[in-house]
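Before drawing any conclusions, I looked closely at one protein's amino acid sequence and its backbone structure tokens, quoted below without any editing.
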Amino acid sequence: MAAKKGKKRVQQNNRNTTRKTSGSQGIKQRRMKMNLRNKKMKKQRIQKMIMAAVVCVLFLFAVYYLSMRIYVNKADEKVICENVYIGKTDVSGLTAKKAKAALKKQAEADGQIEVTMNADEKKEIVSLEDLGAKLRDTDALVDEAMKYGKKGSVRKRYRQMKALEEEAYVI
């Protein structure tokens, strides 16, 4: 029996020594696991912050785009934008039909303008209409006026409409 007790004590001593050594190794392993866990959590935190930043940027872009789109869509497709001229004729806010009529009226008025021509000692007064001055391709001019600020990308239309607030667009 005494031999059995001695073996038990040796076994217990062996266990205690292995526990002590494994205890310090266990602490190191736990620290390593904690460091890995902390690194992993830090990496996840950084990833979450980056994702949050990306979502914020996308949200701001969406708000900016929608505000431009709302501003651009306020323009009526059937009338010409404000501050648009064809020559010296203001066609702002007119439909295509009314703009053509305004151009025709302006062309008739311009046709009555008299020009004095001097040749040698003779002086001749002639109207522009008599000289053959005519307004050509009014349809193309009115179409261009109608499309300004209404065709193209949202950004292009927005810039065109903002430019009209600053200065007139003359065709």
Notes: Residues 66 and 154 are 10 Å apart (CA to CA). The longest strand covers residues 114-119.
